[in-house]
User: Fold tRNA(His) guanylyltransferase from Orycteropus afer afer.
Amino acid sequence: MCASCNVKVRNCLGVTSVILRRFLSLGVTMAKSKFEYVRDFEADDTCLAHCWVVVRLDGRNFHRFAEKHNFAKPNDSRALHLMTKCAQTVMEELDDIVIAYGQSDEYSFVFKRKSNWFKRRASKFMTHVASQFASSYVFYWRYYFEDQPLLYPPGFDGRVVLYPTNQTLKDYLSWRQADCHINNLYNTVFWALIQKSGLTPIQAQGRLQGTLAADKNEILFSEFNVNYNHEPLMYRKGTVLIWQKVDEVTTKEVKLPAEMEGRKMAVTRTRTKPVPFHCDIIGDAFWKKHPEILDEDS
Ligand SMILES: [Mg+2]
Assistant:
């Protein structure tokens, strides 16, 4: 029973909604609590319409995190694959992400231009991406670092940047991939000097000071017999995630026909999933091959 009007609760709610509807149709506003005004302190952070919304995450103090968890230098493939697993989870769990790009301890997520997810509020985009990514990092850690316990909870900062044109978005992604190349070339030589030539970090840093890309390639080739272009693509190019149709094969118990009863059969169904590529995204070829990514109404 409802305490105030003494009818069964289910009926009472029905009556309430009828009264509410009448009030609204008469243009009568419901009384607000005197505290309601604090809502006005909330800032409007709606992302400008028709812009690409990019959320970039970056590991908090991952230099220390990598040390404590014995990451391989210059690249730890377990850590990079875990980052990508987290990014795939973000794309699958959240709405409207058309492409993601990651390298080192960072990942960028691009929401489609016309996304109206959470009314385009920047704080919603950013916090959903960051929290989903961070919880996935902890959740999936053990699948990638079987012998290495997670010693403390990692964190990620996030930022939202709007890009008004396809060109500015492509330039943004090119900037991140160029950054991947510059850092990876440096780190590959830096760690070779330490691990193979026995230099201290300070000495390796000194040796590389003022060198250009060609000089670093030459050191790798002449001193360590390493052709930088043969280093793994994932390290040199980072990881791009785009939606692709994937055939999923599952085994299912089959009911009919009778002679096959109880037998397991492979069933194929097509699903759209975020699939990783380690390719160049600076040139036009990638965008020509995947025009749907930048499609206005994608
Ligand atoms: Mg970082």
In short: The two ends are 51 Å apart (CA to CA). The pocket of magnesium ion is lined by residues 58-59, 62, 105 (CB under 6 Å). The CA atoms of residues 71 and 79 lie 7 Å apart. The beta strands are 52-59, 97-103, 106-111, 156-163, 239-253, 264-277.
